[in-house]
Amino acid sequence: MALYINHTGKLKEVKEKPFKLEKDIQKVFEANLYDIMGLELVKSEFTIKNKRIDTLAYDTQASAFIIIEYKRDKNISVVDQGFTYLSLMLENKADFIVEYNESLKRNLKREDVDWSQTRVAFVSTNFTDNQVQATNFKDIAIELWEVKQFENDTIMINPIKKSNAAESIKPLTQNKEALKKVTEEIKVYTEEEHLSKTSEAIAELYEKFRQGILQLADEIEIKPKKMEIGFRKDSKVFADICILKNSLKIWINLKKGKLDDPKKLAEDVSEKGHWGNGDYQIQVDTDKDLEYIMSLIKQSIKQ
pTM score, two decimals? Predict the structure, then answer.
């Protein structure tokens, strides 16, 4: 993708300025980790069992550890390396918790972590077609992030999305014991999985609310989780939907007192246990208030 500066109608191309070292990419990501990926930095250069992890991060929304590796070499096998790191984490859970608590002065417990949501992210200036295709499975816990630097100090970051027709990796791992063990413990959830447990009417209702949310802003990302489906923009999950048998539960990610809701449709759940992000919950079984609910959700995007 070419990048230009508009000088009074005359376009001037901005040339790419390659990163000199992997460490330069790492510094950019670690200094801006929450803004870029919505993650909390735990440790830079974390070493365990004679293996060095470039960046150890934590996803507070998924309650899971994330391993980030930075690459300038196009010839690596991201799948093999990714599964190696996932296996390393699952076999040494206590070490990751100790590092988290010592680095961040917290008191995280093993049961607080959703190990099934563990994933690895590779960051590179470029990925080959083979690398992209090798990770194009809907249930593989490996992400690819492309980063480019330009001469005017602009940096472009692009998470590579899986195709809508992506298949499952599980049939390919059944004869490889190490890979099979990882795929059995780590779970990548999909919208289809959530929809398979509800009625046709509620599935149609979800689609209406889904489309309504996607039209609220550009570049909204859908992130299915264990109990709910998150809608994220600019690294923030601003709304969640839980698909129940006979209704939808919607959470709006705003703190108590921050939602302008004249109809008092949203329930304050700040003092109640709930799955989604935010202090406001709405339960619906029809689309009669769809437009009004969209106006409430939009407030969370703007925060």
Answer: 0.77
